[in-house]
Predict the 3D structure of the following.
Amino acid sequence: MKYEGVLTKMRSELAETVQYYLIFESDFIHVNQLLDRKISINFLKFQCLGCKLQKKVFAQGYCYNCFSSLPQAGEWIRSPELSKAHLDIEDRDLEFEKEAQLQPHVVYLANSSDVKVGVTRKTQIPTRWIDQGAHEAIEIVEVPNRYLAGITEVALKGHVSDKTNWRRMLTNDIKDLNLEDEREKLKGFIPEEARNYYLAGNKETEIKFPVLQFPKKVKTLNLAKNPFYEGVLKGIKGQYFLFEDGTVFNVRSHEGYVVELNVN
Ligand SMILES: [Zn+2]
């Protein structure tokens, strides 16, 4: 079977094990069904997710021009504490920013290799945790806007990591922790403005990924350098394909790449 389209991050669904979907313009692939099959990936060209032109992807699936001008690529996306819509201050498009920032946000702890703190819109839970390859996660606060979530994250970063060790995540070099205890330890560092939004009652969410066999050592596939790859798919975790030979492919970091997928 042959599929062709521009890559965007996989959609996912929390079930007994996570279900993954690749959405192409005229097709979708239930990626779980490709497990144990030989697939090939052939990079054809770029297609910016913003302007749709055949321009080299700079970041987040956007060409440099779109990345530096579109409201959905503003700096407050990566640094939520820079959000200003609650002050009625525009970054690139105030209407867009109000809609995106002035809605419930969650600061959470996710354990994918070590415990890390992160921020997401409430509607993105548990998607965000799945994307990070977290095997367990828990909410810390739920606040009414992105700014409050951002300053809470910044305050907690001093006491817990905000990075994932993706090699350990992909080789399943992980440990189970009691995240309710971890949350309790951080409680005192939540900034005053967000303290009333502390979620004491939420329980851990456990996430199981569809993986038949974890790689012992990983090597990353970068389609810009190696435009063709073929291998047997042994698992999906986070936004990664895990292959039998230890090759790992980060779908999300290839957003805006037009590929041909062949399934044997
Ligand atoms: Zn563009």
